[in-house]
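Changelog excerpt

This revision adds worked examples to the README so contributors can see how folded entries look when concatenated. The first example is reproduced verbatim below.
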Amino acid sequence: MERFKGTAAVICEFNPFHHGHGYLLSEAKKKYDTVFGIMSGNLIQRGGNACAEKYSRAAAAVECGFDGVLELPFPFSGLSARDFARAGVHIAEETGMEALVFGAEDPEGVYAAAPIVCDQGFEERVNQYIKEKKRVSYPKAVENILAENLGGEKAASLCHPNNILALEYIKAISKRNILSCHVIRRSEMFYSAGSIRALGVPDVKLPTEARPFFEKTLPDGAILPFASLAAKLYTGDKAVLYGIDESLAGRITKACRVAGSAAELMDKCRSANDTDARIRRGLISILFGITKYQAAEMPSYTLLLAAGRDGMGIIKEMGKSSGIRFEVKPASLAGEKQFESALRAERVLRELYGSPDPLCRTPYIQGALK
């Protein structure tokens, strides 16, 4: 398949688009002429809804310099770091990108750990460790195995969220070695997306060009009351759903009997071995019926969410040569199995965002007359 020379992808959420994203873009542009975002839709990786709907976040990105934004669709946008990275890398590969650019707090540590996590026996080592130690989460098992090779301090630093994702991107890339990867050190000069959301997405923390697209935002957990109600109504086997093992399934069932709110349900589901993000992902899986089998697939399509002026030429060529369905209009995907599953989620989120019918959307085109 054709590779577009000088083209890089950034797997992202832009939740919201902030100055740190602008810095990552400026660093990427030093090496690559064209940079695209592969962005989560309306449901995000740590389990929940984005602060603004996907077309607004994509529009902010192109107004701030990205050449285009493609969708990483649900359920892949809401999976654990390993599966989220695998799906994003697949879209980058199949749309013809040359490279993947991503940030990390410790690029040197990431490069040092890369041969370890990319070893063919690494996943088996992790699974065996979990089996032997019991009550050890996947992230903790990875940390302990890395500590055996790199020392405890370095392994602990690599378990920061962006370092974890960086390693998962490298692992996913190593499966086919189609993409080159470029790790950029994250700068501490900028507010993180999480801290900005905690402050209420204040304008002063966002680039000027991005601010109009985040005038109306949602709190992180706006979707959780829907998920909590779904958990209370669900009568099937929760353990067949993505992100839920027998232990978590049991805790959710018990919590549903007594919890009077989504927050209380979350509190009663907590354990030493499950992060809040994993519990939220489990509840989202219940809400939308996402099975382990669905999550094990690769994305079969991507939607163009926004296009910058300079990206239009490559976008047209991508549409012709993409190894997965590359669509501009959601309605073109009607009947596609993965899309129909995602559409159910889009329609629930529409209730929160107050956005138009998801089948009637079109990409944001920079400079187009409104």
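The second example, added in the same revision:
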Amino acid sequence: MMSKLNSVILIGFLLLQTSNVVAQSNSEADTKAGLLDAREAELHASQANGDYESSVLRIINSIQTGELEQAVEKADAHLEKFPNSQVAHLLRADALSALTGPLDTVAANANLPELSVDGLTHQIRNRWRHQTDHAAIVHGKVPASLLDMGNHPYVIVADMSQGRLYLYQNDSGKPRLLHDYYMSVGSAGYGKQVSGDNKTPVGVYAITRYIEGSALPDLYGKGAFPVNYPNRYDRYLKRTGYGIWLHGTPSNTYARSPWSSEGCFVLSNDDLLDIAKFISAEQRTPVVLADSIEWLALDKLETRKRSLLDVIEQWQRDWESLDTNAYISHYQVDDFNLGKGDYAAWKKRKKVVNEAKTFVQIDLEINSLFAYPGVGDMFVVKYKQRYLSDNYSSESEKEQLWKLDKHGRWRIIYEGEA
């Protein structure tokens, strides 16, 4: 009985705030959240992160049930395979302490600085919450941002509030979860605004290149994938900074605390090498860095996607109609083209061009369609545009940003080359 009481003190911090982490709907998937049995939880973690996370969760489960000697044995086995697992060192020290007497504080005998203890307990809480509150929803729904993956075989989506990175595969046009990983973000959180604020940006980005670990300081682990922060929208908002990478961890630790980087998003080296098999700078793998993920059933995602495609198709029809007023009504007048264009001159030019045409035909091939995180009511679409008229033809890669105006109508706030 004493050991079980001690274990309650030990892992009580893990259960804080788990009841309000996810409250998206009353669907069957939500009802099942937090009710996975140990075998299902282990399978989920194993699919996501190899054996590391599942074995950490088994240690915690033994502590929860008061099986402290088994917890120590599991921690020893874990540390044989992952000797740099600071989380396991902490759990082992506390399980040993609980065997000998009351344990008043977490990591009382772990010989770690207070800042390290805070980071490790935060990491354990994130991993535990993902298993208990999130796993069933993750496997039953999809992120609302992934409206259309287009021609991309894989897309990365980060939920920075939960410290989780998801890898989705394009399965005949539908997003299918392939892997998910524990992730660290900036030491000051997320929502980057200025250089040096130690925050991870929120937005839609793309992998731009790969840097071998051998060419980097040990801090970056086995390698790095830079993304294109600041993007066009960031620059419009006068956000500054640079060097936002997806990278690995230093050689002396397996995984960093949830908020610990200077703005990058960070995986363990094992997980970085795993995700590296699926992402590509050449293919400009999209990266959606979300403050939090809205999870939708696939049929609801399709409905939302269809409504936005209808908006784009109406713009296309109005262009083909040669009704200049109908066509230009789709564009935001204030701060036209994110402040980079002259609306009056553009409008005049469009009227002149249309008056010289007898027909215009526009064919669009959607390359990607993503809801933009952290903004609300904005989406970004990239597409191949084929333009044909009686006196001109062209083919180009284009990008548009659409945002709801104050009257509830979708307007193009940016259009240009992708």
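Reviewer comment on example two: Residues 1-10, 12-48 have pLDDT under 50 and may be disordered. Residues 163 and 192 are 16 Å apart (CA to CA).
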